[in-house]
């Protein structure tokens, strides 16, 4: 195994870990209780920033080293992390959550499609079909729960599409800044946390987690899905096969639904198994070139 192959495999493992953590997002959010969304982001991103700062300081980086990034790197990072979540919460306010979430989950498919023109990747039929199968699985899961689209919520759907475009662009364009170390995520999380705090103070009433379990869930969110996962994803999209990562990302909503069911927070549906099979088939198809090497 060559050094390049080993590095790519490690990056793919980091990407899979990030996707797995995102699969726990819904369950941990439910356990955290009715904390306002921008307050939640401010809290969890602060935890995520702390992870990166501690990691960087232990490696000998100074405080200024965590801030000295080119302007375009700052723009991409803050727009990606804060912009995505701001659009997502706005979409959930203006459209039914299930429908908005389905539109939002166009981002893995967009990552695959944008990887050719923006990241210089060769795009084959297996990548496109793999991502399409993944989206079909997620759509099946959503429609199996009675999802319907109403034109009255068109602006909310448009914002959800903005989420998908924002995260896919952030993921693909991050590959162009492969020389920027993952330490930069700590700075982006800090900025996103502060911006979220401002939005919280302007638009929300403060509601603190009510129980020990809720506080532990908030901490777990910051360590995992809305904190630590961003460091893993950054390494993955810069060093791994971004086309395969896009298709593999459709495992997140399947894992999310499965975990909710296992924790007794959602009811099982007949569509879950078929959706999981479609997502699995899509992931295998999209990553088949990688396993041949």
Automatic annotation (TrEMBL):
**Protein name in UniProt:** EamA domain-containing membrane protein RarD
Transmembrane segments in this chain: where?
A: 12-32, 38-54, 74-96, 102-120, 127-148, 154-173, 185-203, 215-233, 245-266, 272-291
Taken from the UniProt entry, a GO cellular component term is: membrane
Q: Which residues form the EamA domain?
A: 13-142, 155-287
Q: Which PANTHER family match?
A: ACYL-MALONYL CONDENSING ENZYME-RELATED, EAMA DOMAIN-CONTAINING PROTEIN
Alphabetical list of InterPro entries matching this protein = EamA_dom, EmrE-like
Q: Which Pfam family is an annotated match for this chain, by its short name?
A: EamA
* Record keywords, A-Z: Membrane, Transmembrane, Transmembrane helix
**Matching SUPFAM superfamilies:** Multidrug resistance efflux transporter EmrE (SSF103481)
Classification from the root reads: Bacteria, Pseudomonadati, Pseudomonadota, Alphaproteobacteria, Hyphomicrobiales
